[in-house]
Amino acid sequence: MSSEARPLPAWVVAVQALSRAFGVFSAGLILLSVGVICQMVFVRAVLGQSSIWQTEFVTFALVAATFLGAPYILLTRGHVAVDVLPLMLATPARRWLHMAGHLVMLAFCLAFLYAAVPWWVEAWTSGQTTPSIWRARMWIATLALPAGLALLCLQCVAQLWLVHRQIELPFGLSPDDRL
Amino acid sequence: MTPLQVGLLIFVVTVAVLATGLPIAFGMGAVALAFMLVFDGWNSVHFVPETVFAGLSDFTLVSLPMFIIMGAAVASSRAGSDLYEALARWLHKVPGSLVISNIGACALFSALTGSSPATCAAIGKMGIPEMRKRGYDADLATGAIAAGGTLGILIPPSITMILYGIASETSIGRLFIAGIIPGLMLTGLFMAWAMFLSWKRGTRLIDEDRVYTLAEKLELLPKLLPFMAVIAGVVYALYGGIATPSEAAGVGAMLCLLMVVVIYRVWRPMDLWAILRDGLRESGMLMMIIGTSILFGYMMSSLQVTQSVAQAIGEMQVNRWLVMAAINLLLLVAGMFLPPAAIILMTTPILMPVINAAGFDPIWFGVVLTINMELGLITPPVGLNLFVINGITPDVRLPTILKGALPFMGCMVVAILILCVFPGLATWLLTQLMG
Fold first, then answer.
1. Inter-chain contact B19–A74, Cβ cutoff 8 Å?
2. Chain B residues within an 8 Å CB radius of A70
3. Which residues touch A110 (CB under 8 Å, ≥6 apart)?
4. pLDDT tops 70 at residue A99
5. Of A69, A73, A101, which is closest to B22 when you measure between CB atoms?
6. Long-range contacts formed by B367-370: CB under 8 A, 24+ apart
7. B6, B9, B3, B32: which is closest to B312 by C-alpha?
8. Of A67, B17, B94, B255, which has fewest CB within 10 angstroms of its CB?
9. A105·B243 Cβ contact <8 A
């Protein structure tokens, strides 16, 4: 399959670029969280003061990194899967299996997104905050769910399309990859 | 339908969905949501974001990406090779010295990274070619690294134990301490087998007569001791109650990042991006599995499956060790197909009531379960470490690696049996240090 040589349509390139941008942002959130934890330990252990915002910030930042980074992880095949059956099949059958599995995934992500949007809108319109002294605004903390899931759905559609059009190999497995 | 029949249906559907090869996280989420919709109606979809977000917004979970970044930083450097080289120089005169050095390096490196594949890759890249070049058979060289790499999920800090701690609501710090003696015991069993086989085969090192000077033996220690100090510091902070696992892991991650920059000159932006990228990929994948497993657990509980399974097993009136044997068999089979994270997060909510009802210590069971998960990493068809080793040494066939790993699997089964006979091996240190 001359998959590498075929040009990708603009919408797929755009979705992949956005997934990479979200991935870089998510990695930045993890690095920032490492710094914030060190600052929190310093404030508590060295300065003897209590921490106010750090615990919530780090917790929400890592939830955000999980959802915003999910499309990039899907793009780079980082989500772990059971590939016993795909490895037992020939490429055409693998393609059908890939389609079936990824349609199940897309259905779940769409349902999750469908529920996440009104949930986030409610957090925004009602001005919900956390009960801590910091009173973190929940619409910021929860924004990563609809944003990440929307891009995840697009990334999933892009991968389905690429495999369906035989531009990419299903599961990234070459015909020689066998159990 | 009775809850037990529903449970059986959930099992069948989950196996079928995961067999399609879709990411496990989304497969579990899809199954959970499908059963919620069928049994509780369409409105149950609105529980999904709230349940997943609330489940993931737990400060304990922060330790996971922090330990992963710590491991990714160390794995990006030459620390693994240096560790192996340093041990090889010290143990040069011992029979089977190179294999023993490799297993020792795996044990120490796994303490630094908490990851089995990373340990296999880091130590194996240099260790396997060196062992084969200097006279060891391919099966012993590859099997030892495949098995040694699994120590990564037993010796603290361990990502697998963090996941078990979260799923079973047991203390992560206590689990880490409980893993120390069994980890050392398993390392000792691996080394003993390697020594025995080298002696039996009469393996002689090509450069057996070489003598390392004290200066050569000490040469690499300044590079390695700071990393060991960080691990010791993290474990000390945990058992001393000085810091929570998340705080200790965060500081450990920062120190390891700084040390790979200063000691190993890993400072180019692309090098640092590689650490963060690997950290994001692993932690994002695990956190997503945790998120959807929370949904899975919620669905199982709301359909009364968890409670019914525990009750049914409790009413069987069978010997508790038979129950333990059955659980281990189930975990072993699951480990042949699924990664440890998915097994732990899916089965722990069901197994914990059974473990508690049978009077087993959940901390002790965490150690037994972790060794069982180690077995899964080197059993076909999806033994992750076997494939990592195969990737490093493409000229060694998978059956040869498996042949080499088989006796080490036996060591793991022996370790589980020893722990069943002497549970104090997992709990004694814990009692001494934390009461």
1. no
2. 284, 288
3. A153
4. yes
5. A101
6. B367/B154, B367/B175, B367/B178, B367/B179, B367/B182, B367/B419, B367/B426, B368/B324, B368/B328, B368/B416, B368/B419, B368/B420, B368/B426, B369/B164, B369/B331, B369/B344, B370/B153, B370/B154, B370/B158, B370/B160, B370/B161, B370/B164, B370/B179, B370/B340
7. B3
8. B94
9. no
From residue A138, give the alpha-carbon distance in Å to each of A36, A56, A151.
Answer: 20, 11, 21
Nearest CA in chain B to A111: B45
Instruction: Name the phi and psi angles at A155, rounded to 5.
Output: -65, -40
CB–CB of B26 and A104 under 8 A? Answer: yes
Per-residue pLDDT tens over the stretch A79-90: 888 888 999 999
Q: Does B369 touch chain A (CB under 8 A)?
A: no
CB contact under 8 A, B280 and A69: yes
Query: Residues 242-271, chain B: which have Cβ within 8 Å of A?
Result: 243, 246-247, 249-251, 253-254, 257
Q: Provide, as residue numbers in chain B, all residues whose Cβ is less than 8 Å from the Cβ of A108.
A: 26, 29-30, 33
3-class DSSP assignment, residue A52: coil
pLDDT, tens digit (0-9, with 9 covering 90-100), for B371-401: 999 898 888 777 888 888 888 888 888 889 9
Q: Please give the single-letter amino acid code of residue B59.
A: F
- What are the chain A neighbours of B245 within 8 Å (beta carbons)? none
- The one-letter amino acid at A122: E
Can you give the length of chain B in residues?
A: 435
